[in-house]
Amino acid sequence: MNKTYYAKIEGIYCDHCRRTISSFIKKADSDAAVKISGNIAKIKSSVLNESAIVQAVEKAGYQTKEAWIFQNFNKWKAFQILEILSIAFVILALRFLLKKLIGYDILNVIPVIDSKASLPALFIAGFLTSFHCIGMCGAINIAVSKSGRTSLLYNTGRLLCYTLVGGIAGALGKTLAVNQTVLGFLVLLLSFFMLAFGLSMAGIFSIPLKHLPHGFQKLRTSSAFAAGFLNGFMPCTPLVTMQLYAVSTASFVQGALSMLMFGFGTLPMMAGLAMFQNLFARKRIFFQKILAAFVILLGFAMTLRGLTGLGFVSQSSAHQLKNWKVAEISEDGKSQKIEIQLSYDGYENFAVKKGIPVEFVINAEEDYITGCNNRVISRDFNFDTTLTAGRNNINFLPQKKGTYIYSCWMYMLKNKIYVYED
């Protein structure tokens, strides 16, 4: 009697991997039916058991364990989800603990990239933001970098794309500016891909490559250069920041050099990530689980950012006024003023009175201005202000009671404005 097994297999990156595994399983049982989707093998056999499946997979050069093999699909799926949720909880706990220890969220400290930046400064900015790059595209880097040669091809493709895009951006100048709605849509679209990719890495959900655009089907070991080149089009915070800097240079050469230096800065971490994976191959499944959980968490966060950019996360129910920092109304009742202090973690929540013009002052110390919080926007109150060191004045008129969102330009840092009335 045939039994059905669901086995999670570590090390699958392409169709060749799947064919190799299938052939070794069939060597153990020529009548076995094998279907591999993502990194999950569905095996129907009247001969094989869990131990025999492990031996066949290991002979093929891949990894699995009896603990990763289930006959009940729902039980296996629950195991996978619980495992990823546990890792995600640990990541969130560590981030919370680190924030408590140092007083701010280190992931929000993105260096400022402006028109005064020198090429060495751009290299340093690239290195500091490469930690962000690992969360965004580290999984692709690992998938294609199975050797020093493929790692070199991947990063060469990535740097070439950065350079070309920087040159084009510099040549076109301000015509490449992205408005809030388009940026929100791009962030939301990317978040869906990140969630799907993270769930696929975790083995919870499989991405059928045949249904993806042709370009994405080439993200395989044999196309490391193409994968790296396509990676350069990801609309993530550091890349968008650098592209806007390239625009400000109004020069093909300067724009290209700027993004090339930024790309060189990301190389130590990105290349090191692949080397670390290759040197510690036995721990690859452990790192993959951590990266999957991180990508899923980042995907959820980016979904909220995209919805904020499109205006879906905005007005909400009112709160008690005593819980808010309240704007001071002038003696004649014709204006109100609120001052806040800029921090790495963004801005502050505050309350203003309906129908009275607001003078909103953000006091910004130069050391606390980052590439993320240096531009503050609000769809509801129609302001978009780039912050400089010192006092930054923003004026708006609240006309409707409610709670509204204002944020940084990439919607990572969000705070609230509560509009009350008598």
Automatic annotation (TrEMBL):
<feature type="transmembrane region" description="Helical">
    <location>
        <begin position="286"/>
        <end position="307"/>
    </location>
</feature>
<keyword id="KW-0812">Transmembrane</keyword>
<protein>
    <submittedName>
        <fullName>Sulfite exporter TauE/SafE/copper chaperone CopZ</fullName>
    </submittedName>
</protein>
<dbReference type="InterPro" id="IPR036163">
    <property type="entry name" value="HMA_dom_sf"/>
</dbReference>
<feature type="transmembrane region" description="Helical">
    <location>
        <begin position="225"/>
        <end position="246"/>
    </location>
</feature>
<keyword id="KW-1133">Transmembrane helix</keyword>
<dbReference type="InterPro" id="IPR006121">
    <property type="entry name" value="HMA_dom"/>
</dbReference>
<feature type="transmembrane region" description="Helical">
    <location>
        <begin position="118"/>
        <end position="144"/>
    </location>
</feature>
<feature type="transmembrane region" description="Helical">
    <location>
        <begin position="252"/>
        <end position="274"/>
    </location>
</feature>
<feature type="domain" description="Urease accessory protein UreH-like transmembrane">
    <location>
        <begin position="122"/>
        <end position="300"/>
    </location>
</feature>
<feature type="transmembrane region" description="Helical">
    <location>
        <begin position="182"/>
        <end position="205"/>
    </location>
</feature>
<dbReference type="InterPro" id="IPR039447">
    <property type="entry name" value="UreH-like_TM_dom"/>
</dbReference>
<dbReference type="Pfam" id="PF13386">
    <property type="entry name" value="DsbD_2"/>
</dbReference>
<feature type="transmembrane region" description="Helical">
    <location>
        <begin position="78"/>
        <end position="98"/>
    </location>
</feature>
<feature type="transmembrane region" description="Helical">
    <location>
        <begin position="156"/>
        <end position="176"/>
    </location>
</feature>
<dbReference type="GO" id="GO:0046872">
    <property type="term" value="F:metal ion binding"/>
</dbReference>
<dbReference type="InterPro" id="IPR008972">
    <property type="entry name" value="Cupredoxin"/>
</dbReference>
<keyword id="KW-0472">Membrane</keyword>
